[in-house]
Amino acid sequence: MALEARCFAAYDGIFNRRQLRALLANPRAAWLIAGPFAGAACLLVPANGHGRWGRLYSLAVDPRYRKQGIAKDLIAASFDWFRAQGLTVCRAEVKSDNLAARRLYAAMGFVEGAMLPHYYGLGEWGLRLSRDL
Asked: pTM higher than 0.85 for the full model?
């Protein structure tokens, strides 16, 4: 919760305590942690077990540790984990106005796809991303 609070505001899609508990208990979710909670990534695999894609559901890096390559390391480790699960595509979403995150994802090989109206709340659009593994 502390990392979430340092990284996101309510309009960014911050997880609440109930959501975090559910994700931690979800057998289809995995968490990658960088350092002493300097950053974290939540990964999801398809619920039906038949999809060939995984979802980088959340990526958070503590503002004190940004610009040190932690986000890139977490994304790269996510790719490795998805490949180990037999998945061939990584999907993610990002706020359309988060230009720093969009640059990071582009540098990691993601392609921007569909716009997602009101994905993060009224007037807060998202952008779907994907990358072949």
From this structure: yes
